[in-house]
Amino acid sequence: MKPHEGRKRRLGDRKDGFRVRNVDPMSRLEPFIMAKKMDGWVLFEDEIDITQTEDFIRRMRLGELPNLSLYEVVFAAIVRTMVDVPELNRFVKHSKLYSRNNIKAAMTVMKGMSRDSDRTLIIPQFECEDTLYDVVKRIEAETGAIDTTVKVEDDENKNDFDMLETAFTWMPDFLLRGAINVIKILDRYGLLPKKLLDLSPFHTSFFLTNMGSIGIDAVYHHIYEFGTLSVFGAIGRKRVCYETQADGSVKRMVKIKMQFVVDERAADGFAYAVGFRKIRSYIMKPEPLLSPPEAIVFDKIDKVKKKKKKKEKKDDAE
Questions:
Q1: The CA-based dihedral angle spanning residues 272, 273, 274, 280, taken in that order and rounded to the nearest 10 degrees
Q2: 173-218 confidence digits (pLDDT tens)
Q3: pLDDT tens, 249-272?
Q4: How confident is the model at residue 166 (pLDDT cuts 50, 70, 90)?
Q5: CB-based contact 123:201 (threshold 8 Å)
Q6: How far is the C-alpha of 85 from the C-alpha of 70, rounded, in Å?
Q7: To bridge 112 with a disulfide, which of 59, 106, 117, 268 should be the other Cys (CB 3.0-4.6 Å)?
Q8: What is the mean pLDDT of the chain?
Q9: Torsions phi, psi of 307, nearest 5?
Q10: DSSP notation for 61-76
């Protein structure tokens, strides 16, 4: 199931989202006061204890998920959180607030580990009922098809995003500039073709990058002005530390730093706070991710109709 599955588009809705019509006054005004994403950036940082998570990953590697990585656990944690807190899957476009009708992510994949290695992108899509098994399967189905031995331009089996990217780079500058400007205008009014939306990493629920895989700590990565991306997360390298407990004992712990840049206009601070607490909880204790969510929370986007007060009948005795 996808968010808002079965719902019919109305005037004002987009191919990639439905208009949120029950906004409070502040949410209505913010996109006009803060017209650009950079005006509404909020930076969030958290350090997460993954000592138990690493034990969980080791156990799963001995069984059903032999190639399970911490990155995939974090991915699944964010996917599940967007089911639990659907407000995190909203975006602002042309000063209007929308609720996305899919859960789609983007991640960069290096074709090698040298300075001249090419990069490619995969854009897996997820269902609301997806478990950790499903998330791993969807990610590995796309990463497994990437040929890391050749450059993107020379890859005969390049994915759809690579083909689109390569086609654009063949254009002379003046044509490329014109094409991008047209795409931006179409995007502003929700007129981009669905095929282009499906291939765009700029029109995803979240973008996640693993800086720890190249040996550095997490960074605050900008969310692009183009497109509808509202959440960009980065994972840092693992850090071993020793902390004194209440009883005086010293405990060895493994931690990672995660840093997010989010669009404040898309959801309020309370929704982000609840969401980030859930992400932390699912990463520290991933066992609930092995089963489908107990309940699927649907984003409340329709305007609540006020009940008309019944006219009081006059008492004949008066």
A1: 100
A2: 999 999 999 999 999 999 999 999 999 999 999 999 999 988 899 9
A3: 898 999 999 999 999 999 999 999
A4: confident
A5: yes
A6: 22
A7: 117
A8: 90
A9: -75, 135
A10: HTTT-TT--HHHHHHH
DSSP E strand boundaries for the chain: 17-19, 41-49, 90-93, 96-100, 103-110, 119-122, 125-126, 206-210, 231-235, 239-244, 250-263
**DSSP string of 88-126, one letter each residue:** GGEEEETTEEEEESSEEEEEEEES-SSTT--EEEE--EE
DSSP string, 227-245: SS--EEEEE---EEEEEE-
pLDDT, one tens digit per residue, over 267-312 is 999 999 999 999 999 999 999 999 999 999 999 999 877 665 555 5
Cα gap 222→261, rounded to integer Å: 6
Cβ-in-10-Å burial (0-12, 13-18, 19+) of 249 comes to exposed
What's the Cα-to-Cα distance from 242 to each of 48, 169, 249, rounded to whole Å?
14, 50, 10
Query: How far is CA 171 from its chain centroid?
Result: 31
List, edge to edge, every strand of the sheet that includes 17-19: 17-19, 96-100, 90-93
Local structure of 30: helix, strand or coil: helix
Whether 256 contacts 48, CB under 8 Å: yes
* C-alpha closest to that of 80 among 297, 301, 271: 297
Q: Mind listing the pLDDT tens digit for each residue in 15-70?
A: 999 999 999 999 999 999 999 999 999 999 999 999 999 999 999 999 999 999 99
Look at residue 17 and give its three-state secondary structure. strand
Is this model's pTM higher than 0.70 or not?
A: yes
pLDDT band with cut points at 50, 70 and 90 for residue 145: confident
Class of domain 17-290: alpha beta
Question: Do 283 and 74 touch, CB atoms closer than 8 A?
Answer: yes
Average pLDDT over residues 161-167: 83
Report the C-alpha gap between 255 and 232 in whole angstroms. Answer: 20
